[in-house]
Amino acid sequence: MILNKETAQKTAELLLQINAIKLKPQNPFIWASGWKSPIYCDNRITMSYPIIRNYLKESLANQIEELYGKPDIIAGVATGAIGIGAIVADYLNLPFCYVRLETKKHGRQNKIEGYLQDGQSVVVIEDLISTGKSSLFAVNALKEVNANVKGMLAIFTYGFIIAEENFSKANITLNTLCDYENLILLAEKSNYINHKEAEILTQWREDPENWSG
């Protein structure tokens, strides 16, 4: 869910500005899953731009307080959301931990890094939502240690139907600063892409697994 359309449009503008999101409908990317995609998103790049990371930090922190008040702790999903999660926690003056996508193979074999007390309320931060599978893995890891997961916030979501279904089944609320629809609207409005390219990008989102480019 998008809480603020102005924030969504501003976030889209900033992500396109620094090429954190690249749109190439005529020359698709290949994802690790094997899917062909006219879009590639790497929000970790935002950490290299102080003005942009501060905007994202403050926007996420404001939404957390609006939705949940102040939780006991902020959790980031490794590896993409460790940076943004940590600075959001710092801004809110809250503890921080992060969740690995698999248990550490040596040492204490942690899945969760940081100090998390039994029963603490947690808001989870993600950088990007695709199918939601890895994000919900982190949520389950937190629940396994009796954390009270209030919800998840992310910078951007592709808005896949499968993600909506996964979050609904897990009974986890997801809110994002920006989504695919607002991104495409802003990109076409600012002439980053033309109308034909916008149509191609819209078609891809309808069936990304079988889209051939």
Features:
single chain; 213 residues; alpha/beta; Rossmann fold; six-stranded mixed sheet; 22% strand
How would you describe this protein?
- With 213 residues, the chain is of the alpha/beta class.
- It has a single domain (5-206), classed as 3-Layer(aba) Sandwich (Rossmann fold).
- The protein has helices at 5-17, 50-68, 82-91, 133-144, 161-170, 180-189, 195-206, and strands at residues 21-23, 29-30, 36-37, 39-41, 73-77, 96-99, 112-113, 121-129, 148-157, 174-179.
- The strands form 3 sheets. A 6-stranded mixed sheet has the order 7-6-5-8-9-10, with helices on both faces.
- Strand 8, helix 4 and strand 9 (148-157) form a beta-alpha-beta unit.
- Helix 1 (5-17) crosses helix 6 (180-189) and helix 2 (50-68) crosses helix 3.
- The longest helix has 19 residues, at 50-68.
- The two termini are 28 Å apart.
Short description:
With 213 residues, the chain is an alpha/beta fold. The protein has helices at residues 5-17, 50-68, 82-91, 133-144, 161-170, 180-189, 195-206; strands at residues 21-23, 29-30, 36-37, 39-41, 73-77, 96-99, 112-113, 121-129, 148-157, 174-179. The longest helix is centred in the N-terminal third of the chain and has 19 residues, at 50-68.
CATH class (first level) name: Alpha Beta
- Describe the strand arrangement of the main beta sheet, using strand numbers: 7-6-5-8-9-10
Characterize the main sheet. Answer: 6 strands, mixed
Percent strand equals 15-25%
Roughly how many Å is the radius of gyration?
A: 17 Å
Question: So, CATH architecture?
Answer: 3-Layer(aba) Sandwich
- Low-confidence parts: none
Order of helices and strands: HEEEEHEHEEEHEHEHH
Structural class, from helix and strand content? alpha/beta
Estimated helix fraction: 40-55%
How many beta-strand elements? 10
